[in-house]
Amino acid sequence: MSQETSSSTTPSGLLPPPSSDESSSTSKSATQITVGGDAISLVDELGPTVVNSDGTLSRIANWSSMTSEERERIVRVLGKRNKLRLESEVRKLEDVREG
Questions:
Q1: What is the DSSP letter of 5?
Q2: What is the DSSP string of 41-83?
Q3: In which residue ranges is the amino acid composition biased (Low complexity) (predicted)?
Q4: Residues 6+ apart with CB under 8 A from 61
Q5: Model pTM greater than 0.90?
Q6: How many CB atoms lie within 10 A of CB 78?
Q7: Alpha carbon of 87 to those of 5, 15, 30, 43, 92: distances in Å?
Q8: What is the pLDDT along the chain (99 residues), one digit of tens a residue?
Q9: Coil, helix or strand at residue 39
């Protein structure tokens, strides 16, 4: 199971908007997960958003070639890891504000 991530983030760490051909496929199927009480929709064709250890965002490059079992496992693991990384980024911001 390879977890390659693409580096298609903008300098600000935000992902670029999907191209027009990708946006038309968003109504096909979406997976919804809950992280910290807030529901997050993930479009199956694009894959989940990965929060990198430095706080930037990326996508899994080979998402479209993964089996459904691999996708389910990745979503489960990423949900937990992303939550931890986001909490870490919030703590860093709070430390900056206090310091």
A1: B
A2: EEETTT-PEEE-TTS-EEEBTTGGGS-HHHHHHHHHHHHHHHH
A3: 1-13, 20-29
A4: 4, 5, 6
A5: no
A6: 21
A7: 21, 20, 25, 24, 9
A8: 544 444 444 445 555 555 544 444 444 556 666 667 776 665 567 888 899 999 899 999 999 899 999 999 999 999 999 999 999 999 999 998 887
A9: strand
